[in-house]
Structure formats: structure tokens, C-alpha cells
Amino acid sequence: xxxxxxxxxxxxxxxxxxxxxxxxxxxxxxxxxxxxxxxxxxxxxxxxxxxxxxxxxxxxxxxxxxxxxxxxxxxxxxxxxxxxxxxxxxxxxxxxxxxxxx
Length: 102
Description:
Helices cover 12% and strands 36% of the residues. With 102 residues, it is mainly beta. It has a domain at 3-71. The termini are far apart.
């Protein structure tokens, strides 16, 4: 199978939660890598997503330390959409993970 990796950067304006992680992640830019494999047997090139990884910054203050986490691309997209909704008050600026269904 032929695979490819796409890399892009996503930006969060406010702290956010992702499913599978019990911590509030800080606002900022995050590198996301998506591995895709070529679908065989069709007359045009098409790829299917097989893995999505987000690179998280460590809280130690050293910008060179990171960790990576497999993430459901649908949960990542939902977190990005929630981040775009304007906060009504300062209480709304920090999400409650229980209200988000995470």
C-alpha cells in the first residue's frame, strides 16, 4: 500500500479539551499529521485517512519538548468549531469538559 502524510497547523484561540485526555490544553498553534493510504482498484487516485496525530506542547517551559497523541479527527474538528464560537462571558472562555461531551 502507498501511504502519504499530510502535515498542517491548527490554531486555538482559547484553552480546549480533546477526548482521551484529562487535561485542559492551552490556546495556541498545534501541528497535526494525518496518514492516508491509497485506495487500490479504482481508476483515479483516492486516499483514505488511517491515522491522525496532534503534537502537544509540554508544560515544562521548554518549547522543544513535545508529546504526540492519536486523536479522532471528528473530535479535533469539533474542538476547532467550539473554539470559533464567541465567548459570551469570561466563564464561557474556558470550556467545561463535561458540558462538551468529552
